[in-house]
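Supplementary Methods. Inverse-folding protocol.

Structures were first reduced to a discrete structure-token string of length 168. This string, shown here, constituted the complete conditioning input.
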């Protein structure tokens, strides 16, 4: 008696979605035209300026400037990382991550730590400490406050976005 062989093929929606999403690289050109996008680019440019102004001096002799360097470099790297995530729309491919909460925590912590670093930077700048590096440290202090205000703006926009998501 002949046997009948039945082969059943199924495909999971996970693999179909994975292959569809990984095959195309999305690019959000309009993100840089938004106020949060412009603030993020400003944070990157001026944050780079803050830590290069300090890095060009003998900052390692003064612990206060070491702290400012840490905050400036740490948040510069993370801001570049988040800019890439937003520009490539990676957040749409990883829906398990609460991106509005992550953005709010990131921008809020950047605002607070940059504010502390800017205050430490400004209070540490004296001609008596090192007159050779005075101008670089003074300029880094000014730009640290400007970057702080940019992170404050992005914290506000992140809060608005987070609040609208939690109310839905």
């Amino acid at each position: 008696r002949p046997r009948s062989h039945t082969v059943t093929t199924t495909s999971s929606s996970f693999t179909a979605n994975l292959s569809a999403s990984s095959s195309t690289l999305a690019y959000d050109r309009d993100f840089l035209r938004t106020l949060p996008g412009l603030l993020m680019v400003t944070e990157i440019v001026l944050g780079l300026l803050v830590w290069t102004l300090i890095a060009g001096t003998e900052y390692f002799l003064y612990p206060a400037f070491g702290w400012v360097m840490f905050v400036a470099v740490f948040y510069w790297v993370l801001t570049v990382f988040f800019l890439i995530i937003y520009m490539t729309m990676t957040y749409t491919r990883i829906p398990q991550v609460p991106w509005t909460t992550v953005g709010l925590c990131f921008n809020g912590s950047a605002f607070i730590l940059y504010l502390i670093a800017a205050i430490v930077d400004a209070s540490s700048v004296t001609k008596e400490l090192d007159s050779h590096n005075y101008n670089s440290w003074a300029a880094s202090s000014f730009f640290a406050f400007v970057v702080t205000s940019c992170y404050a703006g992005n914290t506000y926009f992140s809060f608005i976005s987070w609040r609208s998501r939690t109310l839905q």
